[in-house]
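Appendix B, example 12.
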Amino acid sequence: MTELIPYWMNESLVLYHCDFKRLLSHLDDESVDLVATDPPYESLKRWEGIGTTARMGLGRKGSKSFDPEKLYETIPNYELAHLLSEIYRVLKPNRHAYVMTDGATLPFFLGQLLQCYSCKPCIYADEWVKIKFSNVKILVWDKVNLGMGYHYRSQHEYILMLDKGKNRRLADLGVGDVLRFKAEGQMVPTQKPYELFKLLVRQSTNPGEVVVDPFVGSGTTLVAAHVLGRKGIGGDIDEAHCQIAVRRLELLFGCPPLPGIEEPSLAEVVM
């Protein structure tokens, strides 16, 4: 296995430019305290070619539907089992994972997670169906504002909370399973609120523990990990996303701006 070279790092955070399979394969068994991530799921592809990809902040104003800037890589549904299996492997016992998903992708996740509780032995199980999370809890992210559309307009997404082993006590048992946080500015497509991921990290880890995000996007999970005194490991297959995450992290650590580079505002660094 070739060495994985950090794209950026400091004393508590490290970022890699690679896909989720390469990042997770380089992590030891039972070495991580929390995985919190938002995969670019396959269902997002349905917006390509019909002009609505601009909803996610992609492409230049007035550009055509198939402008290259509007195209981005997603994780196919058939790889979700691999993702879940690797998350299970790297998590320490009695730890949590949080995986964002939408309504179209949720059945694919549940199909893999629930197979491991079916008939034993299951003649239909493929090589990746070895996922033995002890509990699956579906949380709802309420976006507050309505999305665009011509039907019942979308106002929520789902968060799969996965327990490995004995359920670890959450930091605050007064938090309900509907998490209400307003959507934020779009440094990357489908960017999730900083305060949402800060809550998830705080709920399921202690200071000094290790948080991993294999689809790091703009670096929200790493920012939350640092602010809360956790260690963070992130990766993204899209180098443009890595560059955005690096500038966000460098601003967080007080690094000077780069000449000729459009910087996120200081408010965007922790939002």
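The domain at 8-40+75-269 is CATH 3.40.50.150 (Rossmann fold). The beta strands are 8-9, 13-17, 32-37, 91-101, 135-142, 156-164, 178-180, 210-213, 231-236.
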